[in-house]
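From the pipeline queue, job 12 of 40. The input is one protein chain; the requested action is below.

Action: predict structure.
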Amino acid sequence: MTPRLPRRLPLAALILLALLLAGCVPVPGTASVPTLTVAPIPTPTATPLPMAVIVNGEGINQAEFDSELRRYQQAQAGLGETVSVETASSVVLENFVDLLLMEQAAAAYGFTPDDDSLQSRIETLALDAGGPEALAAWITAHGYTPEEFAAALRRQVAAAWMRDRVTASVTATAEQVHVKQILLYNEEEAQQALGYLQAGWNFEDLAAQYDPVTKGELGWFPRGYLPSLAIEEAVFALQPGQYSAILQDEGGYHILYVMERDPARQLSPDALLTLREQALQTWLNQRRNESTIIYPP
C-alpha cells in the first residue's frame, strides 16, 4: 500500500495552469512577432456559437473546446501517453467545468482580473520565457491566438485565486501516525505472519524479515492521506505499540503497526499537497451538486 491519494484532480493536468505557476517554456528559433497585449472580454455576437458545455448559464463554445482538446492530445503524445478521443474529450470538458465553477465563485467574492493586472501577468510570463517574442512563439506553437491566450489566462487567474482561497483552510499541521506494515500477497501468508505476532514476535523484527529493504516503513501521515478509508480508520484506531488485524485492499494483505502518534505534527510537502487537493475536490464536488451543468448534444 502506498500511503497517498491518487492524483485525480483534473486541474492538476491543465497546461495553462502549469504555465501560470511555473512560467512558460520558450521555443527556440522564433521569428519576430508583435508584443502581446490583453484582449478585452469579447462582446457576444448576435448569432450564438455552438456550445460544448454550459455551467450556470455561462459556457465554453465548441471552437474553444476543440482547440483545448488538440492541445491536451498533443501534450499527452509528448509525454508518450496514448489517450482515446473519448477519454481526452471527457478530461478537457470536466476541466472546463471546474474552471468555470471556480471563476464564477471568484466573481461572487468580488475578484475578477482586470486588464491592467492581466497585462502585468503577461509581461511577467514574457520575462520568464525570455522575452515577448519567446512567449508569443510558445503561444503560437500551442495553437493560441494572442486574444485566445489572454482570454484563457483571464479565466485561469480567477480560478487560481479561488483555488488558493479554498485550500487556505488546510493547515500546515495535523494529527499524524507513524506506521510500519507487513504486506503480503496471499491470505495464507498473512495469517501466518499474524500468528507469529500473536505468539509474541516483535513487529519491527518481523517486518524487516518480510521486507529487508524498507523494513515495512510507511512514515508519518495524516487522516485523508491513505487511498483506503477503511484502512485509515483501522490505523487511527490504534495506539502506539498496537498492530491491526489483517486488512485487505487491491494492494494485498496488510498488517499495520502504529509506532508513534502526534496530535499536531508538521505535514510533509506531499501530504500538504494531497490534503489541499482533497479540499479542492470536495469543494468542487459540492459546487457541481449545487450548479446547473448542461452538456449540449
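Job complete. The chain has two domains: 10-169+279-294, 173-265.
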